[in-house]
Amino acid sequence: MKILIIEDEPELAKSIESYLSGQGYSCELAVNYQQAIEKVSVYHYDCILLDLMLPGGNGMDVLNELKLQNKEDGVIIISAKNAVDDKIQGLKLGADDYLSKPFHLSELSARLFSVIRRRNFANSNIIQQGNLKIDLLAKTVDVGGNAVMLTKKELDLLLFFIGNKNRVISKNALAEHLSGDLADMLDNHDFIYAHIKNLKRKLTDAGYGNFLKTLYGNGYRWEG
Amino acid sequence: MIKLLDKPLKAFTTYALIVLLCSIPVYFIIIDTIWVHEIHERNQIVAAAVKRNLVDLNLDEDRMKSAMALWNSMQPETRIYEVNEYKADSTYNIYRKNRYMVDKGYDRFEGLVTYFKINEKPYSLTVEANVEESYETMIAITAITSMFFIILLVGFIKLNKRISKDLWKPFYQTLAQIKAFDLSSHKNISFEHSQISEFEELNSSINKLIDSNVAVFRQQKEFTENASHELQTPLAIVQSKLDLLLQDPSVSSVQSLIIEETNHALSRVARINKNLLLLAKIENQQFLEKQSVDMSNLIQRILDLFGDLFREKTIQFKINAACVVEGNIILIEVMLTNLLMNALRYTATDSKVFISLSGNEIEVSNAGTYALDKKKMFKRFSAASNHTPGSGLGLSIVREICNRYGWDVRYDYITSMHVFKVTFSTYQKRL
Predict the structure, then answer these.
(1) How far is A75 from chain B (nearest CA, A)?
(2) 3-state secondary structure (DSSP) of residue A66
(3) Contact A104 B239 (CB under 8 A)
(4) Is the CB of residue B288 less than 8 Å away from at least one CB of chain A?
(5) Pairing between β-strand A146-148 and β-strand A140-143 as defined by DSSP bridges
(6) Average pLDDT of span B185-213
(7) Residue B256 is nearest to which of A102, A153, A219, comparing CB atoms?
(8) Cα–Cα distance, A29 to A21 (Å, whole number)
(9) Measured between beta carbons, which residues in chain B are less than 8 angstroms from residue A168?
(10) Which CATH code, of 3.30.565.10, 3.30.930.10, 3.40.50.1980, 3.40.50.620, is assigned to B291-430?
(11) Chain A nearest-CA residue for B313
(12) Cross-chain CB nearest to A184 (options B233, B267, B277)
């Protein structure tokens, strides 16, 4: 899977690259508008991570360029502006998602996973891991043919883990993912335990082994 | 506080009162002196005439005696007596009861005692006339003075009103404009031209002051927005580095805990930054699109999310009447989220938060142990209690959103409950 990271802040770009490489993605970097345009014109990427404020131009114009060239690359906007207008405009211009800075790399990875799945497996989007099968279109999960009834939150959580396979996910990232913007206003993040506990129990009951590891009580890792 | 124009009015009135009060004894002394002087003159004239006529009659002693008796019984104002010696003239001024009209009380008399000789025999002649009593004069003068004082007073007040209306009109207009001026409203102020140089000067000085204030305010807002933007990227870097650090297999459990705690603090910084940016955007007149928002639907949606986050707390939502509000859906959602989040965060475990929605207002209440500082709570970064740290901006944002739409938000502490109430009606009426 090829990813283009268009981000002028080298440290952030490096972090993203490092995290995603660990996930098995191959990443390329573009640090300004000119580079970005050159790369998107020449190559095809499974997903482009696009910062809107770029030296030499506006990230929105990269979207326009993609549209002009009929490119089908997935795009996730990562912006510091967090402006609703930008979000709406970006999505209208063909971006798949919008993530405002600052964000957890695990959140980015989960979204990236979801965008690529949606783009590449439009007709039958099924994730298979061992005897666990997730149908993303029907939103059903089964283990060895036995349907597992998951709540919306639990399915969300499962996909988040799968999108960050073998990576350590902080409790904070999970809380922010599940609560939207509200996590930092909460005094504790205990609410995520209930979801994780239920998810684990349902999968174990259905015969799926314990793939979710708890690390020091502060993080989780989905192994597979 | 007293009004500017009332101050000279008070001074003028006091001065007029003093002058008029002083004038009462002066008038009295003058009038009384004139009275007495005139009566004295009249007495002298009468005495001179009587004396002269008696002398001219050339009466002998016997006839004089009978004439005297007749005279004294007929003329009460003048009396003639035989005396032993001839003396210089003298006067007296007395109060006594009228012999014939006793009920009338005391009368005042000015008398003249003069002496004359007939046939070398000395006689005294007393001429008396009724003078206006002093206290009556005093009463009359006081009454007239009071009347004039009242006339003056009424005149002053009327004049004052007229002067204030005309002369001070530009001043009061300016004052009203300054009062109505809102720094954050983006509306400029323009004063009417005045013919009076002081007012013109005042207006131009105020204009200068306002202009510089507006400029500073704008700069500050731009600064907030820019600073928040600039902070997002370094925050994102720190966040990403922490996420990477966590991937390191050599991270110990202690280090992992530190990372998690750092994450927690970092997300608070991010939240503050986001809220500052949001405030700046609201102030900078963004979020302009409007739509009709059904409050009960929106609240239900927020509650669905909250129910998951606050399992141990109960939210009781009561809809008394449907409520549809005109506004930006994002802002309204932010407002409701902040109000509810605020109530939930400060509610003890196993206790309830009440939401009640009626036609034009929403009330969010939760149990509390003491009243919070009303003045401070809506201000930025002034947590009304040091309980648990929030972003310090949640309620400022609520107030800012309410200000935008002309809604009223208030806090009250009623029967051990914190009650936040947003009233939409003021806005609806204006529509």
Answers:
(1) 19
(2) helix
(3) yes
(4) no
(5) antiparallel
(6) 84
(7) A219
(8) 12
(9) 246-247
(10) 3.30.565.10
(11) A191
(12) B267
Going by pLDDT thresholds of 50, 70 and 90, the confidence category of residue B186 is: low
Structure-token pair, residue B98: 């009228």
Q: Is the backbone of residue A188 left (phi > 0), alpha (psi -120 to 50) or beta?
A: beta
B212 CA: distance to closest CA in chain A (Å):
29
A2-6 and A26-30 as β-strands: parallel, antiparallel, unpaired? parallel
Q: Which residues of B touch A82 (CB under 8 A)?
A: 232, 274, 277
Min distance B183 CA to chain A CA atoms (Å): 25
Topology, domain B190-286 = Helix Hairpins (1.10.287)
Model-wide pTM > 0.90: no
3-state class of A140 per DSSP? strand
Torsional sign, CA A93, A96, A98, A102: negative
Asked if pLDDT for residue B388 goes beyond 70, the answer is no
Question: What ipTM was reported for this prediction?
Answer: 0.90
- What average pLDDT does the segment B355-365 reach? 90
pLDDT value at B386 more than 70: no
Alpha carbon of A158: minimum distance to chain B alpha carbons (Å):
17
Ramachandran quadrant class, B89 (left: phi over 0; alpha: psi -120 to 50; beta: rest): beta
> Maximum distance among all alpha carbons in chain B?
160
What does R_g of chain B's alpha carbons equal in angstroms?
Answer: 48
Q: What share of chain B is helix, strand, coil (3-state, %, to 5)?
A: 60, 20, 25
- Closest chain B residue to A12 measured between Cα atoms? B237
Put simply, the chain B residues between 356 and 415 with a CB less than 8 A from any chain A CB are 388, 390-391, 394
**Which A residues in the span 194-223 are in contact with B, Cβ-Cβ below 8 Å?**
194, 215-219
Residue type, B328: N
Give chain A's domains with CATH numbers.
2-119 (3.40.50.2300), 127-222 (1.10.10.10)
Any bridge partners for residue B363, and if so which?
B356, B421
Beta-bridge mates of residue B82: B123
Q: Mean pLDDT for chain B?
A: 85
Note the CATH number of domain B6-156: 3.30.450
> H helices of B58-168, where?
61-74, 134-166
Query: Does A168 touch chain B if contact means CB atoms closer than 8 Å?
Result: yes
Q: What is the DSSP string of B210-243?
A: HHHHHHHHHHHHHHHHHHHHHHHHHHHHHHHHHH
Q: Decide if B243 contacts A22 (C-beta within 8 A).
A: no
pLDDT digits (tens, 9 = 90+) for B49-84: 988 888 888 888 888 888 888 888 887 778 888 888
pLDDT reading at B307 higher than 80: no
B425 has a chain A CB within 8 A of its CB: no
What was the pLDDT predicted at A123?
67
Q: How many other CB atoms sit within 10 Å of the CB of residue B232?
A: 22
| Residue written as token pair 């980015």 | A108
Domain ranges of chain B: 6-156, 190-286, 291-430
Q: Looking at residue A87, what is its pLDDT?
A: 86
A39 touches chain B (CB under 8 A): no
The pLDDT of A78-102, averaged and rounded, is 87
Proportion of chain A above pLDDT 90, given as a percent:
53
Residues A119-177 pLDDT 10s: 887 667 888 888 899 998 888 999 988 899 999 889 999 999 999 988 999 988 998 89
C-alpha distance from A22 to closest chain B C-alpha (Å): 9
Q: Any CB–CB contact under 8 A between B70 and chain A?
A: no
Both tokens assigned to B371: 């009243």
Say how many CB pairs under 8 Å bridge A and B. 125
